[in-house]
Every structure is written in structure tokens, then in C-alpha cells.
Write a structure and sequence with these properties.
543 residues, mainly alpha, Arc Repressor Mutant, subunit A, 25 helices, 8 strands, extended
């Protein structure tokens, strides 16, 4: 077979990821905060983009020549003043400013003869600094001068007078500068302070700290012992037991019985009071008092200081009851950036720009600005379309509550609105919906399905979790429900579920096991009874 060269025409279809398509996909999955940041960067980068609600700054002077110009271009009122003599020397008025500056005043003697007095009497020899100092020393005469009233200056800002929030690191650093004078100890102390988390704890192992600082383990332990005496009590601990022990030493309550209790906090978490009473060697009344003292301590002493501020969750979609009994879905306009393409500016520039490179730059800027506006509009429409379909699919949730949440997946929504599943997944990422039952992430409405025991409609996993929580919350202290009992009750309600699934859902909701719940409720019931008996003994009923 001979090898030859020839030309062929082929026609095929392929999807090409253009930069504009990649930008549109990126905008879909951004949250409203990330989207605002992205648009702000584009506004700084692209001169043809502008905000739709831009207004001139308050202190910026207008560029209109009719408002602010020179004397010849001013309004009719300014011209009339010049003619009437306020700017000149007509009608016996004083000479104008230009006439004063251009006139030769003569020698000192001629000036004194003209003014009929000496220059020393006209111009004081006291320096301006002395006059300013006297004015500064004078007592304020108005309320605003004392700082009590609002200033008329536009730059006046009340936030400038707010004290900075004291952080835990700053608070410990101030005590460190007083506790140590040796530079080596201060360096070790500052390194350990930098390791303290927002709860006030240090890492359990400080061996790497000694190696990194080139100090001995004894030096690090010595500095740590001093740091643990800083305020607040319990700071710089490496475990919960050590934190509580530091606070008990501060209160002079760390006796052998209390030490045994602190060293066995796992038994206290399990409410194994019998074992704790044997280990501590005390009776029921003493162990109850000791547990009360432990509860009054602060397990996270560092949390009283300033920590990272929580970002407020702003919903992207609002769902409100409609007048016809349905639901009205609308976008939150505050989260949608309003940008426009300045076509007028581009037209003016295209007439003045002569270089090919500049023309290409502004052409690309116009194209990018146009694509960004279209992408933002398409993003808003897609979010509204997906949210509307979610509300239609989960109508029972909005009407009756979480117990009526239906199983839903991405494919069901994508098929209903004729979009791809990946598009729906990007739209529901980092988006929130404000409803009459609270604010939820859009992904909250997508739950797995659990088969029905009688072959009917499947149940949502979130609805099943809610059912399990209701069963556990309503159980009596004398009849705690085990996982097997919960499975039986769920199957009686038409939910086919396995025991391991119940255990998984229970642990995900941070609900303890039946054994732990029995101990907790019996302990709580015992405390209530002991309190009632104590009150009754203090206030006996009259015979």
C-alpha cells in the first residue's frame, strides 16, 4: 500500500471551553460574598465597567463650568458684583484686590503718613505661634469643643473612638513582659503564647518547641509553669484535666479527692457516680458538691476574649407565601451586583485612540465587560429557576414542616428545568434560601431516599432523622428506647430502615446511646428529687 498525501474535509461537533464559558461556570458556584469580591476586581481592572447606582462623592467638586469656573464664566450674579463696585473701585468703594497688589505703597514714612499712625500699632510684633498657643490654652466654650457633640466635619467617624478589642494573645503578651526579664525566657514565652488556640489550650506535645528554640525541655517547662499562672485561670493548659486542675489550685480546692475526680473525667462524662464515689473515697453528698464545683469552672478560658467574628449568612433567595396559597420565590437584590457597560465612554475613546494596541485593549475590555454583564444576568436567572423548582418539589416541607420533606436528587431538578446535573450542583453550592421555617442551604433539600416498609412512597433521610429525634426526645426516663426499639417503631410507621442506619443518624445528631441517656436522665431525676427533699426539710409544713 503506497503512502500518499491528500487533502480531506471533515465536519464534526465538539465542545470548546472558551474563556467566557469558563467565566460563566465559575460565577455559578461563587457565593454572594465571593461574587462581590470578583466584581470589585473587575471594576478596578476594566475601565468600561461601572456600577449601575454610581453617584458622585459628597466632597467632589462638579466639573460643570456653569457652576465652578473663572470670573468671566460665572453666573450673572458674579458679573453684576463686578459692575456694582464690589470687585473694583467704582462709586467710592475701596480698591479691588488686583489694584491693591499692583499699587506701589511707597516707603515706611509714606505708609505711616497715609495710615495716620505708626506701623507698630497696626502690625503687632507678637509672633503667630504665641497667639495660637494662647488660643489653644483657652478653655473650650462649646459642647462640641469638649468632644461631647457631633462635629460638622464630613470626615467625623464615631468608629474612630471605639477602643480596639483585646485579644487573648495581646493579654498574655502584656503579662509576659512583666513576668520575665531575661530575653531567652521572653522568647520561649512568646513562642508558647503563639501556640495557644482561641480556647486557651496548648498542643499536648511541646517537644518540638524545645528543639525549634534550641532550649532544654526543663527551660520550656519552667516558662510554661509561669504562663499557667496568668490570667485567665486555666490558660495554657494541654488538656481539660490540666485546665480544671489549674483553676482548682487557684481556688485552693485541689485536694486528693478532687484530684482523683479530675483524673477520671471520663467516668464523670459517663455519669458513673458509683465508680467515682469509690475512687474519691467520699459519700454521695460530697461527690455531688465536687461535681457542682467542676461544673462552675470554665473549660475554655480563652473564649472570653475576642475571637474571629462570625460572618452573617445572607440569603440569596426569599420564599414567601403567595396570595393564592402557593409560594412566591424571588432573588435577594442586595446580593446581586449591578454593573453596566459604559458605551458612551467607549465611543469617545474609539475616536481619540490612534494606536492599534490601544484599540485592541479597549475592544477586549468592551467584550469582557459585555460578557460579564451577560454572565451575571444568566447566573441570576439560573439560581431563580433552580430555586423555583426546589420549592415546587418540596412544597410539603414549606407547608407542613421537615417531616414532609421528600427525597430529592440533582437529576430530578435538572430534568425538570432541562439543565445538566453539574449546573444544578454548581448553583446549589454556597447558596442559601430564606423561608418561613428558617434559612437553609439549597443542598439541604437534596436528601437520600429510604424505602417504605409497605412498598409506598419513599421517605427522605432528613425526615427520618427528624422522626428519630422526636422519638428520643419524648422517651421517659424509665423507658429509654434502644436502637432496636427505634427500628421497630419506625417500621410500624412505614419506614424500612436498618439498625446501623439508626445508629449512624443518631451519632450524626450527637445523641448518646441508650445506656448513656438512661444514666443522664436518672441523674437529672435524682438531682430534682434531692433538691425537692432539701427544700421540704428547710421549710416543714405546719401541723
Amino acid at each position: 500500500m503506497a503512502l500518499t498525501q491528500r487533502l480531506e474535509f471533515r465536519q464534526s461537533q465538539s465542545l470548546v471551553m472558551t474563556p467566557q464559558l469558563m467565566q460563566a461556570i465559575k460565577l455559578l458556584q461563587l457565593s454572594n460574598l465571593d461574587l462581590t469580591t470578583f466584581v470589585e476586581e473587575e471594576l478596578e481592572r476594566n475601565p468600561l465597567l461601572e456600577r449601575a447606582n454610581d453617584e458622585a462623592p459628597a466632597g467632589e467638586a462638579p466639573t460643570d463650568a456653569g457652576q465652578y469656573g473663572n470670573g468671566d464664566e460665572a453666573g450673572g450674579q458674579g458679573e453684576g458684583q463686578g459692575d456694582d463696585g464690589f470687585g473694583g473701585s467704582a462709586d467710592g468703594f475701596e480698591p479691588g484686590q488686583d489694584e491693591w497688589m499692583s499699587k506701589d505703597l511707597g516707603t515706611r514714612a509714606e505708609i505711616e503718613q497715609t495710615l495716620d499712625t505708626g506701623l507698630d500699632n497696626v502690625f503687632s510684633e507678637e509672633p503667630a505661634e504665641a497667639a495660637a498657643r494662647n488660643a489653644q490654652d483657652a478653655a473650650p466654650t462649646t459642647y462640641t469643643e469638649w468632644g461631647g457633640g457631633a462635629s460638622g466635619d464630613e470626615d467625623y467617624n464615631l468608629e474612630a473612638f471605639v477602643a480596639a478589642e483585646m485579644t487573648l494573645s495581646d493579654h498574655l503578651a502584656e503579662q509576659l513582659s512583666v513576668a520575665f526579664t531575661a530575653p531567652a525566657q521572653r522568647m520561649i514565652g512568646q513562642y508558647l503564647i503563639d501556640l495557644v488556640d482561641e480556647a486557651g489550650y496548648l498542643p499536648p506535645d511541646l517537644g518540638q518547641a524545645a528543639e525549634r528554640l534550641g532550649a532544654s525541655q526543663a527551660d520550656v517547662e519552667g516558662v510554661l509553669a509561669v504562663l499557667q499562672k496568668f490570667d485567665p485561670p486555666g490558660i495554657c493548659a494541654r488538656s481539660l484535666s490540666e485546665c480544671l486542675a489549674i483553676q482548682l489550685r487557684e481556688l485552693d480546692r485541689y485536694d486528693p479527692a478532687m484530684q482523683a475526680l479530675v483524673e477520671h473525667l471520663d467516668l464523670l462524662a459517663k455519669r458513673d457516680i458509683v465508680a467515682l464515689r469509690k475512687i474519691c473515697g467520699v459519700d454521695d453528698e460530697d461527690i455531688a458538691d465536687m461535681i457542682g464545683e467542676i461544673r462552675r469552672l470554665n473549660p475554655k478560658p480563652g473564649m472570653k476574649f475576642g475571637s474571629a467574628r462570625l460572618q452573617t449568612m445572607v440569603p440569596d433567595v426569599y420564599v414567601r407565601p403567595g396570595p393564592d396559597g402557593g409560594w412566591h420565590v424571588e432573588l435577594n437584590s442586595d446580593t446581586l451586583p449591578r454593573v453596566l457597560v459604559n458605551q458612551t465612554y467607549y465611543s469617545e475613546l474609539s475616536k481619540k485612540v490612534g494606536k492599534d494596541g490601544d484599540k485592541s485593549y479597549f475592544t477586549d475590555a468592551l467584550q469582557n465587560a459585555t460578557w460579564l454583564v451577560r454572565a451575571l444576568d444568566q447566573r441570576a436567572r439560573t439560581i431563580l429557576k433552580v430555586a423555583t423548582e426546589i420549592v415546587r418539589q418540596q412544597d410539603g416541607f414549606f407547608t407542613h414542616g421537615v417531616a414532609h420533606l421528600r427525597p430529592l436528587n440533582l437529576k430530578a431538578v435538572a430534568d425538570a428545568i432541562q439543565m445538566h446535573e453539574s449546573t444544578v450542583s454548581r448553583v446549589t453550592a454556597n447558596k442559601y434560601m430564606a423561608t418561613n421555617r428558617g434559612t437553609f442551604e439549597l443542598k439541604y433539600f437534596f436528601t437520600a431516599s429510604i424505602a417504605s416498609a409497605d412498598g409506598g412512597e419513599a421517605h427522605s433521610a432528613e425526615a427520618v432523622r427528624h422522626h428519630i429525634k422526636q422519638l428520643i426526645d419524648s422517651e421517659e426516663p424509665s423507658a429509654i428506647l434502644s436502637d432496636d426499639t427505634i427500628v421497630e417503631r419506625l417500621r410500624a410507621s412505614g419506614i424500612d430502615i436498618a439498625r446501623r442506619t439508626v445508629a449512624k443518624y443518631r451519632e450524626a445528631m450527637r445523641i448518646p446511646s441508650s445506656v448513656q441517656r438512661r444514666r443522664d436522665k436518672q441523674s437529672a431525676l435524682g438531682n430534682v428529687l434531692s433538691t425537692a427533699l432539701s427544700d421540704r426539710s428547710r421549710n416543714p409544713e405546719p401541723a
